[in-house]
Amino acid sequence: MQGILYFALMLLAIGFAIIVFYICYLLMSVASTFKSVGKTAHDMEEKMRVITPELQNAMKESSKLVDDIYDKLKATDSVVDTVGNIGTSVHTMNQVYKIKRDRTSDEEIFQKAKPFLEGIKWSEVGTELYSNWKKDEPQEETQLAVQNEETNVVPLKQTGKEG
């Protein structure tokens, strides 16, 4: 019986030794994992030390850009207001024109526009005379047109003997 007891104690000691070796292996594996995690954390910390100033500079630049954009948009507010005021003015002018147009007959409009049309007509004649006078080369044939009250357009042919 004593032999069985010693044999059982020996099996128990061998089992305990196996468990101790397994626990040692497990602890060495955990220690290796912690070393790897520590090294990774250290590398990450070093990279963050490099990246952090760059991120701060990027954030400062972004802040400057946002402020610049805000200032430029604020500066365009007056332009937008001016365009709005121009639109209001044009709308008001169109309304006044419509009211005046409804009150005025076509004949009255033509009579009021007649001095302007005469001015345009005589400025065209003056421009044509001036351009003909300034030309270095004589032209073969030049036509002048004068508007008459009874007829629309009366062409005048120049023969070169006029004057």
Summary of the model, kept short:
This protein is mainly alpha-helical. The protein has two helices and two strands, in the order H-H-E-E.
pLDDT averaged over residues: 83
Distance between the termini: 161 Å
Order of helices and strands: HHEE
Rg for CA atoms: 51 Å
The number of helices is 2
In which range does the helix fraction lie? over 70%
Low-confidence stretches: none
Taken from the alpha-carbon principal axes, the silhouette is rod-shaped
Number of E-state strands: 2
**Beta-strand percent range:** under 5%
Explained architecture:
The chain is 80% helix and 5% strand. It has helices spanning 2-103, 106-134; strands at 143-146, 154-157. The model has no long low-confidence stretch (mean pLDDT 83). It has 163 residues and is mainly α.
